[in-house]
Amino acid sequence: MRLNPQRLHNMQKRIQLTMAALLVVFLGFSVFPVQAAEGEGSSIQDGQEIYQLLKSGKRSIQEKSYLKPEQPTVYLTFDDGPSKLTDQVLDILEKEDVKATFFALGEEAKAYPNVVKRIVNSGHALGNHSFNHVYKDLYSDFQNFWDQIQRTEEVFSDIAGVRPQLVRAPGGTYTNFDAYYYYLLEQAGYTVVDWNVDSGDSKRPHVPVNEMIQTIKSTPLEHEITLLFHDGSGHESSVEALPQIIHYYKKLGYSFAPLTTEVKPKQFPVGKSKWSRNMSLSHFQTMLKETRQYVLAHGPIKNEPQDAIQRLVNQTKVVQEESAQILSSVSGVPLQIHVSAGSEFTLESTQYEVRGNQIELSLRVLIEKMGGQVRWEEATKTARAHYGVYDVEYELSTRSLRLYTFGNVVDTYWLADMSLQEGTIIVPLQKTIDLLGGRITQSLIEPGKREVSLAFRQFYGWNENSSFLKNSLFAANF
Ligand SMILES: [Zn+2]
């Protein structure tokens, strides 16, 4: 092999780079122990500063990035089990091909070890819900809570070989946790998860199925839903309601996934604790040392369902690409929308986002740009538009779009991607245009240039006459 000068130059360059890399590695190693020692020295001082911050009731928020699923997702969670009902829950989940999360109690896990094994082996997530669920033990002092978490973890580890990093506070964190509880559990490597939808199945004994379903249906939808259920004894009606609730979300376009530490946890704000506790600085420092040592001894442990993580990782790539695209759209590329027959309008870079291959924008902006108006009804969380013989109603709580003609419902569509952001309904452009009887005939999404062409069915008269589109499409009287 003959080395030409260019090749030789490249080789020299590569050698230089390798040397530089080795130097970095070498320096890195020699510097690291010094840094670690410094870190240790200052952590006691940190402890004091953090103690003061937490004492004021404020949480010390750790920066962490999470993986946002592309699909709207429901995380079903079942608390207080396992019990004799849990096998039925697992049967339903298997039949529906849905994965969930079980926040189990150490005490119950000891009584139903085979159910714990089945949960883990079926790819569901197992979470820690304390050992005995007795509030006055758990919330009298962090030490007690912490002891129960470890005790339960030993039970799970013995039975199924897992040490869950997900913790759910019995009764939820609100008015039970203070900033110390949150902070110390994070130091020990745990992720605390509350919920944003409560099935209401533990309001009182034996809540009827219909009431549960009504409660769920009346709760506003979000892109990620952590749904609270109970599979402890006495919750037969939760088991009975489960298939209907799964179907409800499936029909809205939701996927189901087990929780992992990569999912941004729903957490309630720190409220005023209803327990009188006194955390002294020295007690805090002892707890801080214990929790930090615990993580060194046991973690970080990854024993979450691997396929769920992989799926999220795949989705994250998409989301990261999306954020890159959103970034470039923020950096000032307007979106030009051509409507057939020569009408066109421009959306400023701040008026739309590109997610994946999908353009999302405010419903109001879209309709106003097309010459119409949107009327928003706060009480019913419904936006109404009217054009020709058609009325369109976007109902946010069910994420549905209803088409009416002469007051009769023609059709109902589900838009799982619809969301409310700072008082604005965000809708996907393509689906919305589809539903309005149009289609995207061309789209060009490139760095520096964004163009979309729309065509509407002749039936509506949209593509023939742009002034009709501007003036009559969404008549002024809605
Ligand atoms: Zn509970």
From TrEMBL:
Alphabetical GO biological process terms: carbohydrate metabolic process
Domain (NodB homology): residue spans on this chain: 72-257
Entry keyword annotation includes Signal: yes
Signal peptide from the UniProt entry: 1-36
Zinc-finger in keyword set: no
GO molecular function: hydrolase activity, acting on carbon-nitrogen (but not peptide) bonds
Organism: Paenibacillus sp. SYP-B3998
SUPFAM superfamilies, sorted: Glycoside hydrolase/deacetylase
Keywords assigned by UniProt, alphabetized: Signal
Protein name in the entry: Polysaccharide deacetylase
Top-rank taxon, per record: Bacteria
Matches recorded under InterPro entries: Glyco_hydro/deAcase_b/a-brl (IPR011330), NODB_dom (IPR002509), Polysacc_deacetylase_ArnD (IPR050248)
Xref: PROSITE patterns: NODB
